[in-house]
Hints:
Helix content: 10-25%
Low-confidence stretches: 1-60
Structural class: alpha+beta
Mean pLDDT: 81
Shape: globular
Distance between the termini: 31 Å
Order of helices and strands: HEHEHHHEEEE
Largest sheet: 6 strands, antiparallel
Amino acid sequence: MASERKNQRGLTWALTGGAILLAGLIAIFVNAALNQPDVAPTTPPASTTASSPPATPPATDGDVVDPNVADQGWVPEPITTDPDLYIRRALEAASTFDTQLSERDEWLTYLDAWFTPDTRYTSETDQLEEMKSAQLELRQSLVLPEPEWDSLAQEDGRVTASVTGDIDYVDVPEDPSGDMRIGTADVTLAFTRTSGDGAETSYEETVRVSVQVLCGAGSVPTPDSSQQPGDCKIVRYFPEPMEP
């Protein structure tokens, strides 16, 4: 099984990463070094405005796994076979949270439920190992690091992400099913912080992020939900945008 996994890895890509976003004292997408050539994140400069209205999580479309998670500041996972809709929500979910409504570990555990095994691996053991690796990669290379979360929490901070513009698609290597898609899009992150005198400060950052999803018979539904095999699920987030 290890040999099979090594051979399959040899036909896919390698990624390089570095930090792709620094906004004041916080960073939301921190990139791991994964040896990806000719790929660079986009991080336009931030703009700051005082006393802006509070940000709210993106609106959902149709059925979701659990609408109540919005009360914790999270994006509800859609129940859909539409990769475009699912990718938009998946990219938003990876950076939408409210430090006053939930803990970081709770948020990450919630994001774990969006994942499904990579069906390109024939061994169930390999599939589970790869899924755990993808979940760890999300924690280590993409989401807000714990020290920055704590810093943001001291100022009653929250972040809301929204996908702007179209999604660009890239084929998934060695996917005979054709059910996997890699989608890349610009994501606008709206940060809101509260100073000691109670004044809110809001600013935005835009990053370009990619996610691989499976919308086919091999997807594993979230337990105790109305999701069905074939509904879209996340296979992996990428620290670097995967461009056509």
